[in-house]
Amino acid sequence: MTEPTRLRPGDARAHGPTVADTLRQDRYPPPAPLLEQCYAFLGDAPIPVSRYTSREFFDREMRQMWSRAWQWACRLEHIPDIGDRYVYDIGPYSIIVVRSGEGDISAYHNTCTHRGTRLLDSEGSGYGQAITCPFHGWSWHLDGSIRNIPGRWDFPHACEATHSLRPVRCETWGGFVFVNLDPAARPLTESLDVLPEHFSHFPLEQRRIKLHVQKKLPANWKAAQEAFMEAYHNFETHDAPNGGNAQYDIFGKYVSRFIHNIGTYSPQSLDDYPGEKWRQPTLSEEELLGILAVFGVQRSNVPEGESARDIAAGDLRRSLGERLGIDLSDASESMLLDSIEYHLFPNMFLFPGLGVPMVYRFRPDGERVDQCIFDLLIMEPMPEGQEHPEPPEPVHLEVDDSYTEVQELRWLGPVYDEDTGNLALQQRGLASGAIEGITLGNYQEARIRRMHLTLDEFLSASEAGND
Ligand code: FES
Ligand SMILES: [Fe+2]
Question: Could you tell me the pLDDT band of residue 466, with boundaries at 50, 70 and 90?
């Protein structure tokens, strides 16, 4: 293997065709954002292991980042009617998002202003025309104003100004409701970087939740999500012959992306990964098409002059379009097949592609440093003008449960088991104290570094402030 000595750090790339090469060769032009490339070297210093293991660091994240960062709490279709509400928990904090009027959404701390009781017990959907505390029965209207204080004669000192529900900032984008616990937070749009522009090509408002799986994972929330921020693990973890040529983009402090071509195969890139597993003859186009059968591709022969990617995309253009009831006749190969993954700081992943249309969210499990909650949603496009169906209840999986228990995940079940199967090992290795910092690839793992740099900004801005 030759060392790329003449290149500056971050300039080296895997051998073989790039994502841009593949997209340019596709027969159907991709949406413009997929042709953008945006990467800059962000440094190569180790990331301290204590960020994944230390209680003190976890507490700083809670106090200074989670309490100040925009994060999505639910979808609009979770609260379509007045009185619908959704409870979202993050660490010690809990927020009630409520449909308070026809076009109004409000959010409040899920805490009684009398003696502090948590108002609504469990996370998730609910309904009520008032919010009532289970302890002494204080209640509030949907706009957060006081509805009733039993034995009011004893509380002349409690009034709207002092005892309304404590409001939480809330804004919407793409059919998602975002909340921010910081009353002085900058508007959500400032954290969305390129997302509104890019996703004008992939409207998320017009997607429905087909499946929601919520699993506990045995690792710090950052380690867990970092396992989904690179395709570098594909060779070893998934035993897959591609991933080395994925494209990584960093669009700003908050948004990054990878594009990983599916249905292509680059023998050259395997030279970069001289492991045992993929020292084998080149895959034929027919064999590649065989791999794409997981998408429901029916055909198995690849005529002269065509590629597995062409055939699979053509098949999906018809079959997926029919199943979803939408016109996909112009959909590009990339939109139909590729794994296209945007990350929005701190913890949201959005996949605009149609073959793998997911949304992820990672967050700490309560106040556990070494365990987190992974929400996995499959979000399919819907025909224009159609009303959102009621979202499915989440399927809950514990740490030791397998994704293969969820039938609807089909071929993705074993893939998620592979993705999450390393996490307990990684967390144990980190906790051993044997290394002080983790090492990141300059290109393939740059999104992870970006996330830590933005986290640092939250931590240091708050420290300089009035903490
Ligand atoms: S603590 Fe809520 S009504 Fe008393
Ligand atoms: Fe993976």
Answer: very low
